[in-house]
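We treat protein structure as text, and this decision shapes the records that our systems exchange. The tokens are whole numbers drawn from a learned vocabulary of local backbone shapes. One such record is reproduced below, unchanged from the form in which we store it:
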Amino acid sequence: MSADTTPTVMPLSRLAGIARELTVTQRLQPVDRPRLALDILWYRALRFTSLPREDTARTIGMRDGSRLTYRLNRGDLQAIREIWIEGAYIPPPEARDVRYVVDLGANIGLTSVYLHRQLKPDYVIAVEPDPANAAILRRNLAQNRVPALVLEAAAGPVDGRASFRRERDSNVGRLDTAGGLEVEVLSIASILDLLPDHPGQVLLKMDIEGGEDAVFRGDLSWLDRIHCFQGELHLGHADTDAISALLDRSGLPFRPGAIPGRGPAACWVRT
């Protein structure tokens, strides 16, 4: 029997996705648009292959003056796509008076930089357990003059130590008993205690790859201290309906996203 030599055809939906991303990239008008456009194409290819020097950092300038450093890593590129192209973390109008941003699962800092550009908070706390990500995170915060504290730790229900599993894609590492990296774990209450003493509204962003399930099964007194909760809840790893109900009972009702269907982040705002 002869081998099937029929060429593989890329699905129309994938082609449409690529076209949409490149169109939005043009609208963003980064200084290094050709590089970003090529890297977005590489994002698709990296699903199927590896490239040499994938972890080499590169920096692009954006039209708003932001400078974004990232690696040719699917996780980094996905973060650019979700945050800067799809607007996953566009803050709601009710967050305009936020003075502090707490970024749990900060990865390489793209959300911290984005929210600082949008809200101009007085201070940002960025929490990231992966040391390789944390190095890029510090660079992004520094070059964008974000007043911030970086905590090289994971968010959890209580303070302590735990095993963290790193993945090839930089944005999907998680706490796992089989993980090969021991990291510090900080409760959200402990993290909020590091904010300045004077009052001010707090926006807390959470994207901790399913770790939210353990967090929301623990002490929730910290919910009274935040004004806005933005996060990606991971269906299959956490009881997302129960978490949403807990937020609602804490005076943080769900608010539909500014761009329905665009990006993964949900939003709850104190009324």
